[in-house]
Amino acid sequence: MSRSIFLVGPMGAGKSTIGKLLAAQLQLPFADSDKVLEDRTGADIPWIFDVEGEAGFRRRESEVLRDLCLGPTQVIATGGGIVLLEENRQRLRKYGLVVYLQASADQLLERTSKNSNRPLLNVADPGARIIELLEQRDPLYREVADIICDTDHCTPKQAAQMVVERLSRDPATQ
């Protein structure tokens, strides 16, 4: 694999978990853009949202993506909103292969319900918010995706294996 692999999708789709497994299978380094952002700032994402708002977070997220694009070939788990900015979508397409990890709203709600580190879901009705985010972002994930994998009915290990299989048989990935 000569190009980085970017995992995109909503929060709770399994980008970080599947990304680590995928990187191990492909013998590539792994980076989580949210973790890189937190390490750089010394602050967690909810704090950045509180202090700088979503716009400030998105600016920082774009800077991290830019730097990761210029780094070595690796598997990169991106934040769920990375696709909101056109410049990010252009970078994803230019610098790597994009895998959209898709999941249903029900699965996403179940997977995110125990994690308070998701500022966009700190609302009265997280389920409605997930549906709203999916409606907004799904077309953007599809726009950048070279491969789409449904993660609803599989374990992270099965999902990583599915991505490996798709990568090996898709001419666009060679």
Outline the fold blueprint.
Blueprint: E1 4-8, H1 15-26, E2 30-32, H2 33-41, H3 45-69, E3 75-77, H4 86-95, E4 96-102, H5 105-112, H6 126-144, E5 147-150, H7 156-169
Helix pairs in contact: 1-7, 2-3, 3-4, 5-6
What does this protein structure show overall?
- By secondary structure, the protein is an alpha/beta fold.
- It has one domain (4-168): Rossmann fold, CATH 3.40.50.300.
- It has 7 helices and 5 strands.
- It has helices at residues 15-26, 33-41, 45-69, 86-95, 105-112, 126-144, 156-169, and strands at residues 4-8, 30-32, 75-77, 96-102, 147-150.
- It has a 5-stranded parallel sheet with strand order 2-3-1-4-5, with helices on both faces.
- Helix 1 (15-26) crosses helix 7 (156-169) and helix 2 packs across helix 3.
- The longest helix is centred in the N-terminal third of the chain and has 25 residues, at 45-69.
- It is globular, with a radius of gyration of 15 Å.
- The termini are close together.
- The mean pLDDT is 88.
- Reported by name, the CATH topology is Rossmann fold
Strand residue percentage = 5-15%
Unreliable residue stretches: none
- Helix share of residues? 55-70%
CATH homologous superfamily placement: P-loop containing nucleotide triphosphate hydrolases
Strand order of the largest sheet: 2-3-1-4-5
The averaged pLDDT comes out at 88
- Count every beta strand, where a strand is a DSSP E run of 2 or more residues: 5
Largest sheet: 5 strands, parallel
User: Helices and strands: which structural class?
Assistant: alpha/beta
Assembly state of the chains shown: single chain
